[in-house]
Design brief:
Layout lengths: L1 H4 L17 H6 L1 H4 L7 E5 L5 H6 L3 H19 L4 E5 L10 H25 L2 E3 L2 H7 L5 H4 L8 H18 L3
Parallel strand pairs: 1-2, 2-3
Length: about 170
């Protein structure tokens, strides 16, 4: 959609996402997946899969913040002009046991607080998603948007794309 509508801008999108990745795994592959691409714009959606790290490690939130900051520092060291885009993690009470959903929601809300600070410090474009999925659930059932609590459906991907394009265009970075 974005590439089609703005073909004249000669944009190239590279998606290095791997199912099940958490922020630490993304950082571990940073050299080959991010820095090797020498991006002018770096967009990341991370945090949904950090649940098992968070659940078992009381210091995970500090590590989450440190990893994000280190990643952004290294990207900006390579190219100080790189534009950064942070997409919010999300969760829905679909196919998840109630206690797990509540725990995941708590974790994601904590991550979002951290991400707001990081976004402000690094002047990123910020793409809110958790509340947008909650709002979308007023239109259609949650499983229409997120099929298993954490993975978006085609409609959910459309919601993410819509919010990303809205935030990016409003920022003026492209």
């Amino acid at each position: 959609t974005f590439g089609y509508k703005y073909a004249d801008r000669h944009l190239r999108f590279v998606n290095r996402a791997c199912s099940g990745d958490n922020l630490e795994l993304i950082y571990d592959r940073m050299e080959e997946d991010i820095l090797a691409e020498k991006p002018d714009v770096f967009s990341i959606l991370a945090g949904c899969n950090d649940y098992y790290l968070w659940k078992d490690d009381p210091d995970h939130m500090e590590e989450f913040e440190d990893t994000y900051r280190t990643m952004f520092d290294e990207i900006l060291e390579q190219n100080p002009e790189t534009k950064l885009i942070m997409c919010e993690p999300f969760v829905a009470p679909v196919r998840l046991p109630e206690e797990e959903y509540k725990a995941r929601r708590t974790m994601i809300e904590q991550e979002i607080e951290i991400m707001h600070r990081i976004s402000e410090d690094y002047h990123t474009v910020y793409v809110p998603l958790l509340d947008r999925f909650d709002e979308a659930a007023q239109i259609r059932e949650r499983s229409y948007w997120i099929w298993d609590g954490v993975h978006p459906t085609e409609a959910g991907h459309g919601l993410i794309a819509h919010e990303w394009i809205k935030a990016v265009l409003a920022s003026g970075i492209l």
